[in-house]
Amino acid sequence: xxxxxxxxxxxxxxxxxxxxxxxxxxxxxxxxxxxxxxxxxxxxxxxxxxxxxxxxxxxxxxxxxxxxxxxxxxxxxxxxxxxxxxxxxxxxxxxxxxxxxxxxxxxxxxxxxxxxx
Amino acid sequence: xxxxxxxxxxxxxxxxxxxxxxxxxxxxxxxxxxxxxxxxxxxxxxxxxxxxxxxxxxxxxxxxxxxxxxxxxxxxxxxxxxxxxxxxxxxxxxxxxxxxxxxxxxxxxxxx
Lengths: 117, 112
Known about the structure:
The complex is a heterodimer of chains A (117) and B (112). With 117 residues, chain A is mainly beta. Helices cover 0% and strands 51% of the residues of chain A. In chain A, the strands form three sheets. In chain A, strands 2, 4, 5, 6, 9, 12 and 13 form a seven-stranded mixed sheet that branches. A four-stranded antiparallel sheet of chain A has the order 1-3-8-7, with no helix packed on it. A two-stranded antiparallel sheet of chain A has the order 10-11. With 112 residues, chain B is mainly β. In chain B, a hairpin with a 5-residue loop joins strand 7 (56-58) and strand 8 (64-68). Classes of the chains: A mainly beta (117), B mainly beta (112). The A-B interface holds A 4, 6, 31, 33, 40-45, 48, 56, 58, 91, 93, 97, 102, 104-111, 113 and B 4, 32, 34, 36, 41-46, 49, 51, 90, 92, 94, 96-105.
């Protein structure tokens, strides 16, 4: 069990540029979640996948944001035309749904810290 | 929709003293409750969780939490704080199989 990994750990970009983050969940976990955390706040839910299907999206996820999990393993989160307000820590978490029972505990990666200049 | 309130933004305790971090939740059914800890610039580490059963749950690093349905609370406790416990602590409530809603966190400072 190598844990949830995220890449890159830090990203600095200029306003208007596109950025993409990657999350690799724990290998047997079929549910994957994305959260955003701004300074002084707790993480806020963005979206989640079960296998390759995106099951829920928060209203925080504007049309500039897109997330994919094409093969039900790793996931990417892309932000197009970045704005300064997108500066935050982007956290990925995973858990396992087995036999209709979710393990419920979400295990978090180290996060990707984005700074938009 | 579920929500979590952590009324204390900052708490300072002396090393060796006891600690209690408060958490109140709002959810219509029996919630899944969690406490996570986050060190600066790091991800979240699970300290403990409550799903059902015994309302006093034990976690890692000597932490425990008690679920009190009548008070809608899930306070985190530790009998003797160590300097390495300085971090930010998040209480969270989960809906089965879906997203987790976090509180705004409590920053713990430990003084020698």
